[in-house]
Amino acid sequence: MYPNPAVRQILEALQECIPSALGSNLEGIYLKGSLALGDFNPETSDVDLLVVTTEPVSEEDFPALAEMHERIQALANPYANEVELAYLPIGAIQHFQPRAEYPALERGEKLKWKPLGANWILEFWTVREHGTALYGPHPKTLIPPISLGERVGAVRRVLAQDWLEWVRTWQNPGWQTHAGEMRFVVETMCRAAYTLEHGVLCSKPQAVRWALKTLSKPWPSLIERSQSWRAGQPIDPATAHQAAEFVRWVAGLEPSL
Q1: Among candidates 219, 232, 215, 242, which has minimal Cα distance to 180?
Q2: pLDDT band at 176 (very low <50, low <70, confident <90, very high)
Q3: What confidence score (pLDDT) does residue 24 get?
């Protein structure tokens, strides 16, 4: 659960501060992402959590919650600004409606109200099947079963609505495309292809290993090159264009199940 002491410090701070901030409105705090799936990379992974509440976080309670996260982000810890989480009430998880807004934190940003997409259906599945409780009961007591059709449907919806839209807009002047961003794109597409093939969500490193062995040319070459890309490094337009073509290719895959 704790891949290194720095992650442990951040998780222990969250275990202490979130219950204090939410009081009786807290149902559970659960690991998700690479920490839940067992493939945490100290260089590239963030600290992913799902916080389940009894009732939705109110507009009145939001400022105190946001201030608590700012205190944690000020800690002298390499993961202080690498936490990603969302606060969802039980009812919203059990009857999830994509695009509804909830308090959410992304790495390097402040807590804000954010619409959550269909990809969160896959996040719930990860928490239910693999998540560790930092607080509260086993996640299966709060999150209902998520069927194969729901999982595959969520992937196809995210590809169609979010990723193909990104392909249409990534060259806009507002984008600051760099190698780390393109690595994220390539690895996320590997994971989407894996889910369409197997019906389950895996970690990005596992999906990359599978894709290198399984996908047709020219994608393994792109995937292999992407593993050396880092945040802030420049990336040439031809490589970024190939990453965008990879998105189009994965979006056109048919589920194998």
Answers
A1: 232
A2: low
A3: 95
Residue 72's nearest CA partner among 1, 12, 26, 23 is: 12
Tokens 């976080």 label which residue?
57
Helix axes 219-226, 179-198, angle to 10 degrees: 130
Mean pLDDT of the 151-165 span: 94
What pLDDT score does 1 carry? Answer: 66
Task: With residue 16 as reference, give the H or E element that holds it.
Answer: helix 5-22
Give the length of the chain: 257
User: Helices (H) and strands (E) in the chain — how many of each?
Assistant: 11, 6
Give the pair of three-digit tokens for residue 167.
């392909």
Q: In what order do the strands lie in the sheet with 26-31?
A: 112-115, 101-105, 83-89, 47-53, 26-31, 133-135
Rounded distance between C-alpha atoms, residue 56 and residue 217, angstroms: 47
pTM: 0.90
Residue in 222, 218, 219, 249 with CA at minimum distance from that of residue 236: 222
